[in-house]
Design brief:
alpha+beta, 48% helix
């Protein structure tokens, strides 16, 4: 995902949310093109969801029901929180934040949650569901996408 493509697709919508105390509708309007591009461009991605760290759904693509998106957002918050607590208990207090990747693997699907640094709303969680791909590839692509999204959200 090139930065010029991002700018062309989002333009003014992104500019109006920079540096302000936001509600999730503003973030959704800005981030939906970004998560749509993740689903379209990354191999094997079936669905993508962006939510707040406290479990509020912001936007998603590839899910069949709005209720599923709301439930997943709440569950992502819990999964990420529990994983962070486990990381801290294992002696890695500084690793409980942005670099933590929470993954669930099944025989034919991977689901993953990563943090997106965005202080105005106490950070975001990016969730993906992927099929027919390797765990390491999903981690690599989604961690990069989360970093790109974080940079894009705060870019002046």
């Amino acid at each position: 995902m090139s930065k010029s493509t991002q700018t062309a697709e989002t333009g003014a919508r992104h500019r109006k949310i920079r540096g302000r105390d936001l509600n999730t509708n503003d973030i959704a309007a800005a981030a939906l093109p970004f998560i749509t591009r993740i689903r379209r461009e990354l191999p094997g991605i079936r669905a993508v969801l962006l939510g707040t760290r406290d479990g509020i759904h912001i936007c998603s693509v590839g899910l069949s029901k709005a209720e599923d998106a709301a439930r997943l957002s709440a569950l992502n918050s819990s999964m990420y929180g529990v994983s962070g607590a486990q990381v801290q208990l294992m002696g890695h207090p500084d690793a409980a934040g942005g670099e933590t990747v929470v993954a669930v693997t099944m025989p034919d699907e991977i689901i993953m949650v990563v943090s997106v640094d965005y202080e105005p709303v106490n950070n975001l969680l990016l969730w993906v569901s992927a099929e027919d791909t390797q765990l390491g590839m999903v981690i690599h692509h989604i961690r990069n996408a989360a970093d790109e999204l974080a940079e894009w959200l705060v870019d002046d």
